[in-house]
Model the fold of this input.
Amino acid sequence: MSVLSRLRRRATVDGPARPADPTPEPRPDGPALDPPAGPSAGAAAVDAASAPAPELPLGAEDPDAPIVPEPAGATADDAVAGGRGRRVRTVAAWVTTVAAGLLVFAVLVAPNRLDQLGPGAFLRIPVEGLVAAALLLVLRGVARRAVAVLCGVALGLLAVVKLLDMGMSASLARPFDLVLDWVLLDDAYGFVRDSVGRAGAVGAIVALVAAVGALLVLTIRSVLRLTRLVARHDRRAVRVLAGCAAVWVAGATIGVPVADSGTSRLVGQHVGQLGAGLRDREAFAAEAAADAFRDTPGDELLTALRGKDVIVAFVESYGRDAVQDPEFAPEVGAVLDGGTRRLAERGFHARSGFLTSPTAGGGSWLAHDTLLSGLWVDNQQRHLSLLADDRLTLNGAFRRAGWQTVGVMPAATQPWPEKSFFGFDRYHDAAGLDYRGPKFNYAPMPDQYTLATFQRRERATPGHAPIMAEIPLISSHSPWAAIPRMLDWDHVGDGSIYRRPTSVAVNPKDVVGRSATEVRTGYRRSIEYSLNSLISYVETYGDDGLVLVFLGDHQPAPVVTGENAGRDVPITIVTHDPAVLARVAAWGWDEGLRPGPSAPVWRMDTFRDRFLRTFGPQPPAGPAAPPSPR
Done:
């Protein structure tokens, strides 16, 4: 503002300028008049200086700000340009302030699940914001700024936690555990690397770190900016705060959802995870100590399966939705029903039911732990506690009873600590399977290759010792993009045949940019492929000495099932020996490879004991399995 314009503004506000000396000029015809009685001019000036400054209108310029003289030679055009620049800066300042307010408000009221995002989620008054604003109004100086910085940091961390919750809810159908889930970040990196390549995974990490840092900076600066605004217009801020508080109290009283305290509940839930984890560790130790089969001699275990090769195969992401959701059930059901007929022509029969998995969307190892140990392993802490225990697993029972136990892990591309716990006699990881073909996104090799290599190495030798094998199949793992084609078993070889384009049924170039419909279609096709691989394996290599148990490890991610889907997975037992099926008749499972909607549902941790009792020396007896958690 130029000197001339500043003087004009003062003249407009205060009236015409008057002489500084209050003594009146003498009249030409008489003595000077005395000044009026009353307080002296000096006292008036002191009072004026000590009075509080009037609150400025929002956005108004302070008329008492120091006058900055214009540079020499300034022209009228320069004055116009300067005024335009000031207007631009004023608008930019207001836009920044509004953006800061929206960011703070959004972080406070936003839900921590993607399915809850919507306009209604933001029609809230967060009580945490009211409390913080009141505190900042009371404080002064350095204390106010320090608390504002702390509030900004807390707000940034809250945003990060909500984003982590959103990611976990979308992938594993549960919130992020601030105590136990950090180890999963390494698995997430491996998944991204195997899906889009190392460069893409590194780029994703760099972008993620930069985004978190930028978010913290933005929240801190936003809170500081709003704090300065509140301090400058404290009387208006008090009135606005009082009005919002009255609305919040009224909403809470009559039950209107405008009164929001979701952030406090969320923080309380995550803080409570620490104590819950400590209590759960003790509860799990007590559960693991109770084992009815801990001291059972080997000659009393699994007597009804003597001489059989028993394969326990997990089908990745094979959940109840695959056989009952109208979008998948017709095609997947056709594969299962057709397989039931083809196997029956070769003398094989099957029974199917459901198990409730401890996990959903991912965390396959938790399902493996639960099925094989007979313990409910639904978090990483329980998993690590199990590995430190000497629990008798299902494969451990087979080993004690005289079987050769084999682990076939096509997804194990790094050292696998669980190998020593499960105690396999022989172990084949991704490197040991000697695959020479291309990867299929996350899957290092096709399921048919895994089964063909297992057959060649473990079952092809006549007169081999009975084998119990655990085989987690991986072709139906997300992102459900590249899907192999079923080949003649004699042509699988070392896998190099999969380099031919004709060996790939589906191979979209853009894994990231697919629509939700394309993702679900890819999921269905991958499940069909994995099931066809198992059915064809039994058709090709099955005999009277084979017992196959195959099941899903968990339901797929919510992008496939939708939110709030159950955790049931199908389980099927296939055998050529009628005596084996006679043993499981008491289970009440449905005939065939596809369980119906009313098929029995057990908790997955009950399977080990039920299986050992059923195929032990005595016929199955005892109470029914406990109800499945919902």
The first strand starts at residue 125 and ends at 126.
